[in-house]
Amino acid sequence: YQPTGPSRKGRTSYYYDDIVSTIHYGKRHPMKPQRMALCHELVLCYGLYDRLDMYQPRMASEEELKMFHVSDYVDFLRTVTPDNVSAFKDVLSRFNVGDDCPIFNDLYKFCRVSAGGSLAAAAQINRGEADVAINWSGGLHHAKKTEASGFCYVNDIVLCIMELLRCHARVLYIDIDVHHGDGVQEAFYKTDRVMTVSFHRYGPSGDGGSDPFFPGTGAISEIGHDHGRYYSLNVPLKAGMDDTTYVSLFKSIMEQVMHTFRPGAIVLQCGADSLGCDRLGQFCLSIDGHGQCVEYMKSFQVPLVVLGGGGYTIKNVARCWANETALLVNAKLPNAIPPHPYLEYYGPDYKLHPKIHDQLRNENSTHELNNIKRVIAEHLKFLGP
Ligand code: VJV
Ligand code: CA
Ligand code: ZN
Q1: Residue 71 parent element (H or E)
Q2: pLDDT tens-digit profile of 211-258?
Q3: Is the ipTM of this complex over 0.90?
Q4: How far from chain centre, in Å, is Cα 86?
Q5: How far is the first Cα of the chain from the last one, in angstroms, to the nearest whole number?
Q6: From 25, 96, 100, 201, mutation site for ligand 1 pocket: most ligand atoms within 8 A of C-beta
Q7: Which of 50, 137, 178, 340 could form a disulfide with 273 if both were Cys (CB 3.0 to 4.6 A apart)?
Q8: Global pTM?
Q9: Nearest residue to 55 (alpha-carbon basis) of 140, 116, 109
């Protein structure tokens, strides 16, 4: 199959290392790195390699990881294994190791590959060798300077943005994962050189327990400190956001952000747990609606790094990211998925755009959504031209 559509103008790089297909967080753990292999096989069977510069990224070095993370935490990640973990029992809670963030085989390799791809993507944007650079193995937005959090160990996004800041005065970070991008927000909370914008589910989780929806941060009142005041934007939402409400809110906010912040580069975290029917998420986006957000950011023609993130119904994650890889190179993919090694995952319809019928009611009223728009517009006015 040859992708059709107007010939692409910009250059698009794509970073993938097959090692991720062998990584297992644990038998029933929701995070499954195999989803990147599924996505990669879709990208190949649709023939998108013709329009991509494909790379196997160099693994990030210990020194590169230590540009953000503290030394003893990186040393811990480098040396701990499932076999010797008992020798580390006194530090496991300090580094937040547990059910969400277990110790598994090749954990350190996985961190280095994920961060290596996001660093290589940034470096290539910096050199002007690509206009768009994709790393679906990145986007691990919860990792903190000193500890793991929410399935994330190394914050490849923070490292990516630090690299972009070497060549760009202002970098914009956008996060459409259903969870709050807390680790990235925290890292740049006091600077006016990075604006972070996260759209996320926020509030009581609605599962009957007392925990808020993870991680519990991301109120609209979190705006940044010191020089960074008004450079953190948060869009807290309730369950059931659908294409119409989400995409119109996204475009309206991002248009104003682009106009006032005028970034030299953009990093877009494309967590696919905001899709309907996700095992952990509570939004109701379709693959097309999710993709419209990516397409909108591409339309500004500012150098763009595109990263993965969450996504726990893996056949839909693969569909979502393959579709977004295609739209970033102006390819139009037929709905029928071509035969390939993972075709059986996409039954019974074998379509790229399945009907995602989720039973979730949209709990966000028009009134609440308008309020969010108004408050965000007020925050942006303080930056003003
Ligand atoms: O809600 C939480 C924290 C708890 C304590 C730990 N238990 C396991 C769960 C409740 C309060 N954690 C969230 C973390 C979500 C991370 C999202 C990451 C991303 O998408 O934003 C970016 C990659 C959470 N939600 C669901 C689970 N943890 C969960 C973890 C499991 C599990 C089932 C659900 C871990 C192991 C196993 N099952 C076997
Ligand atoms: Ca988010
Ligand atoms: Zn998430």
Answers
A1: helix 71-79
A2: 999 999 999 999 999 999 999 999 999 999 999 999 999 999 999 999
A3: yes
A4: 32
A5: 48
A6: 100
A7: 178
A8: 0.97
A9: 116
